[in-house]
Amino acid sequence: LEDLPGLVWFRPAECADCWGGKGGKPEEPQAGSVLELHSAEWVDHLPEIVGTLVGMAAFNGIYLDLRLHPLIYRFLVMRSVSASADDLRAIQPTLHRSLSSLRGACDVGTLALTWTVRLPGADFDFDLTRGSPRSPEDEDRPVEAGEVEQFVAAYAEAALVTAVRPQLEAFVRHALASMAVGKAFDLLSAHDLELLLCGSPDLGKFEELQRSCKYTNGFTAESPTVCFFWEVVHAMPEATKRKLLLFCTGCDRVPILGLKALEFVVARSSAETDHLPTANTCVNQLNLPAYDSLAMTRERLFAALEHHSGFGFA
Fold first, then answer.
1. DSSP string, 136-195
2. Full-prediction pTM beyond 0.85?
3. Distance in angstroms (rounded) separating the CA atoms of residues 146 and 284
4. Could you read off the pLDDT of 151-182 as tens digits, one per residue?
């Protein structure tokens, strides 16, 4: 989202399959054809793929570093896709203000508004009267003075749901199927589901993480390197502590029960002290070489956190 960077929403699509055109079922393989293990059409099924991954993560209790918009969690809890114009303020605040300003326009005719619009994120024109992409033979019908309220409502509905309904419904359907939801699912609120999927945004106290931490490969709670490590961690600002969580666990948010439930492990690495720390995010394990000073521990740890992705050392 441009207005709310970091939050995930769906982009309108103009594919024939999405709007009831041809297809809908995969073609049967021809006799003698070679089995393709990869299809270039997989990108057309990203909503289903992401929905399946989200559902499997919820089912297995794995936290995701994925910022879905809160409205999507509401769709999952409702098990259906529906929204009102009031929801536009939370998703597209700039667009909501622009549409609201039309209600006070003195002369709508001077604005040259039509019922064919280009929705945010789309690369095609959308016909608000039909609720589908505009056909080449369609004519643009102007918005009359008495139709402003209907235009605003139709635009908001299209931007929220109508233009992305195929993607939203595919995502919700596959996510719920992978979650294998039961009767207890009906007790969840949208906020509860977000906590189950992404953890708590409250960072909590790292003293809890230290008390519950386990040590392996020769480290103990009294090892000098371990003591250096916790001294460095407790002096970190919040933003750096989140980087540490992301580096060690793959997610910068905290379990619902707090850091004590993270099952964090600090292991002694066999690497020389001129190497940086590494991590096994699948088991929440940080691998530390046996650094022999506080300064070295701080320098190596901060370097790892700042350059853990991309080509920082290339």
1. TTPPPPBPPGGGHHHHHHHHHHHHHTGGGHHHHHHHHHHHHHHHT--GGGGG--HHHHHH
2. no
3. 60
4. 888 888 888 888 788 888 899 999 999 988 78
